[in-house]
């Protein structure tokens, strides 16, 4: 299976630096334009199936990526972003003032991040791995697009690279509409060929 991992376009909450998690925000005009531009760049790829987070921002991204709407798109709650419970809807600067240690853990030591009522990055990674494993089992030898969120995609790529969670936020940055590709065969875990628009070979020289 050739898996194309795509982050959603810019949202109003991205612009405001407001915590999204699993709460719904919507694409800005820039976010719409980002999705349209990526859709044009990948228009020659013949996808067999598209899986998409059920969040509004990812559904909007999918609609602008594939405007012809001839592809079979399946929307999954399990592809939603990390659940951040009491943080959701709050500005990041407010979180930094109110909970400086947890804020630091989130961005600098993600392996230590633990907030009551929120998902850990380890739980997010387990959810991502389990969901993609199911997708793989039913889509062998196919080209599949998966439209999801920055942290979910990052944790999955961390798993493929066999990196510890403490290195989750190491570059490249998972920018809006970043496009990554992982190829799977029966005999391997998975090989990253593109990471956030950059050929993987360039990152590992």
UniProtKB/TrEMBL annotation:
SUPFAM superfamilies the record matches: Phosphoglycerate mutase-like
CC per GO annotation: cytoplasm
Keyword Isomerase (UniProt): yes
One GO MF term attached to the UniProt entry: phosphatase activity
CDD domains: HP_PGM_like
Keyword Isomerase attributed: yes
SMART domains to which the protein is assigned, alphabetical: PGAM (SM00855)
InterPro entries named among the record's database cross-references: His_Pase_superF_clade-1, His_PPase_superfam, PG/BPGM_mutase_AS, PGM_Phosphatase
Keywords: Glycolysis, Isomerase
Protein name (Swiss-Prot/TrEMBL): Histidine phosphatase family protein
Organism from which the protein derives: OM182 bacterium MED-G28
Phylogenetic lineage: Bacteria, Pseudomonadati, Pseudomonadota, Gammaproteobacteria, OMG group
């Amino acid at each position: 299976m050739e898996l194309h991992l795509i982050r959603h376009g810019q949202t109003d909450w991205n612009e405001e630096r407001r915590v999204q998690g699993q709460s719904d925000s919507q694409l800005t005009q820039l976010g719409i334009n980002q999705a349209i531009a990526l859709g044009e760049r990948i228009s020659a790829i013949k996808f067999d199936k598209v899986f998409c987070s059920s969040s509004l921002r990812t559904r909007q991204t999918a609609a602008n990526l594939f405007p012809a709407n001839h592809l079979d798109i399946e929307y999954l709650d399990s592809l939603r972003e990390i659940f951040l419970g009491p943080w959701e809807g709050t500005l990041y600067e407010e979180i930094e003032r109110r909970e400086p240690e947890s804020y630091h853990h989130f961005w600098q030591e993600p392996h230590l991040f633990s907030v009551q009522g929120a998902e850990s990055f380890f739980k997010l990674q387990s959810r991502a791995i389990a969901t993609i494993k199911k997708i793989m089992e039913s889509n062998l030898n196919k080209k599949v697009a998966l439209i999801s969120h920055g942290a979910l995609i990052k944790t999955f790529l961390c798993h493929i690279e066999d990196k510890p969670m403490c290195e989750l936020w190491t570059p490249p940055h998972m920018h809006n509409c970043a496009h990554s590709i992982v190829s799977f065969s029966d005999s391997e875990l998975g090989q990253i060929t593109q990471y956030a628009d950059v050929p993987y070979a360039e990152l590992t020289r």
